[in-house]
Amino acid sequence: MNKGLKIRNNKLKKKAQKRMVIKSNQISLCRFITIRWELIERINGKYQRTGNEKANGLQIKNKVYLINGKYKFINSKSIKILKTYSGVPDWANEYLTGLYNSHIE
After folding, report:
1. Could you tell me if 67 and 55 are in contact, meaning their C-beta atoms sit under 8 angstroms apart?
2. Non-local CB neighbours of 42 within 8 Å, separated by 6+ positions
3. What would the 3-class secondary structure string for 7-25 be?
4. Would residue 27 be called left, alpha or beta, if left means φ above 0 and alpha means ψ between -120 and 50 degrees?
5. DSSP letter at 26?
6. pLDDT tens across 14-67, in order?
């Protein structure tokens, strides 16, 4: 591995550690949200922003559980919260409602 890739990998590790930290205002947080994040792909050996993606999910502490079963850390620089919902919205599936109910109780 060359020196440039080592530097990039070290930066990515530090950013991953920062994303995993739970902030003081996120400790008892549980809500349904819509988020947007940037897509970054490797094109011709360089990393470029190729667009944005939107999804709905359930935020518990610093994680957003998406409808497809995956999750994202909310403390990332590229993630923006577009809308928050009060209660359980129509698009929430059984998996998300189960997580919501278990966290609320």
Report:
1. yes
2. 48
3. HHHHHHHHHHHHHHCCCHH
4. alpha
5. G
6. 988 988 899 888 888 999 999 999 998 989 988 899 999 999 999 999 999 999
88 to 62, 85, 94: CA distances (angstroms): 19, 7, 11
- Reported as a single tens digit per residue, the pLDDT across 59-81 is 999 999 999 989 999 998 889 99
Q: Are 91 and 34 in contact (CB under 8 A)?
A: no
For 10, 45, 50, 72, 74, the CA distances from 80, given in Å and listed in that order, are 24, 27, 17, 12, 8
- The dihedral through the CA atoms of 97, 25, 34, 15 has a sign that is negative
Please report how many Cα atoms fall inside a 13 Å half-sphere around the Cα of residue 91, on the Cβ side: 11
